[in-house]
Amino acid sequence: MSTLRITYDADQHCTALREPEGNTVAMDCPYTGKGEEFTPGNLVGTALAGCMFLSLGAVAQRNKLDIAGASVDVELSMTENRIGSIDLVFTMPGNLSETDRTKLERAAGLCPIKPSFHPDIPISVRYEYSG
Predict the structure, then answer these.
(1) In the chain, where do the E strands start and end?
(2) What is the pTM of this model?
(3) Which of 1, 3, 91, 106 has the fewest CB atoms within 10 Å, counting from its CB?
(4) Is 83 found in the same domain as 30?
């Protein structure tokens, strides 16, 4: 089992450490820090997009679909005191059949992090198939 430890470094900067592997992520405040690292809001959006990608990736792997190089753009808007909305745009390979596209999109929608958001936070998801 991994443990997360967040350390406040100073000057509105902190570091998250995943033990025992030693992986780190740096964070700072976009308003009073330097704005050079991930913000906590960035990490929320990243967690949602990553979870959705891993869910659809499991289906792609099972069905031997090559989605390498697919990407997702995340836009997170903030209100005065919370996340206002999250917009995700997945760019997927264009050579997938309609059936495969439906399977992948359904799988992404089953990401277990997505239902953790309050219903007042709109999450918009769009898929673009290129190539």
Answers:
(1) 3-10, 13-19, 23-28, 71-78, 83-93, 123-130
(2) 0.89
(3) 1
(4) no
59 and 16 fall within a common domain: no
- Per residue in 59-96, is it b (16+ CB within 10 Å) or e — as a string? bbeeeebebeebebebebeeeeeebeebebebbbbeeb
Tell me if residue 5 falls in helix, strand or coil: strand
Domain that includes residue 120, residue range: 40-130
Q: How far apart are CA 53 and CA 55, in angstroms?
A: 5
Mean pLDDT, contiguous 10-residue spans, the chain (131 residues): 86 91 90 84 95 96 96 94 95 96 97 94 96 65
